[in-house]
Write a structure and sequence with these properties.
The protein contains 6 helices and no strands. With 155 residues, it is an all-alpha fold.
């Protein structure tokens, strides 16, 4: 499927109508995957994959990863990757090394951010009571009659 997706990605770059359809189909695909994950039985192989420790780790720190990955992409290595040998005149190994370092730095920054910022804010939830949808509606809110729904007049 990856081999088929590459020519499609090149085609989508230059065709607005096709890229619109492709984005819609991609959204539908991932929506269907989400529905499958939510409706999977707890003992299924899909549930085992979705609840794996690695996915749970990245799920916990996903917001910080999202926030910090783009600014960190602007930084280039301060050291030279010239020591990495080329394979058939390709810099693939150097790129993979840079990618591994970038992912490691992003995860480290996300861990620090989560522990110094997000975790303390999450502990403050106890100061803000949560009312579920099943709870009784708040009775302290008074709606003026002029804003209330009009009454139906039946004849």
């Amino acid at each position: 499927t990856v081999a088929a997706a590459l020519p499609l990605a090149v085609l989508l770059r230059y065709n607005l109508a096709l890229s619109t359809v492709a984005h819609t189909l991609t959204a539908l695909l991932f929506g269907a995957i989400l529905v499958l994950c939510l409706t999977a039985t707890p003992n299924s192989s899909l549930a085992t994959v979705v609840t794996s420790p690695i996915l749970r780790f990245f799920g916990r720190y996903s917001y910080a990863l999202y926030v910090f990955h783009h600014p960190l992409l602007w930084f280039r290595p301060v050291f030279s990757l010239a020591f990495v040998p080329t394979v058939f005149r390709s810099q693939l190994l150097a790129y993979l090394l840079w990618l591994a370092i970038s992912i490691g730095v992003t995860v480290a920054v996300a861990l620090v951010s989560w522990n110094l910022l997000e975790k303390p804010f999450l502990k403050m939830k106890r100061f803000f009571p949560y009312h579920s949808a099943d709870a009784a509606p708040l009775t302290s809110v008074i709606v003026p009659e002029s804003l209330a729904y009009p009454k139906l007049v039946t004849s």
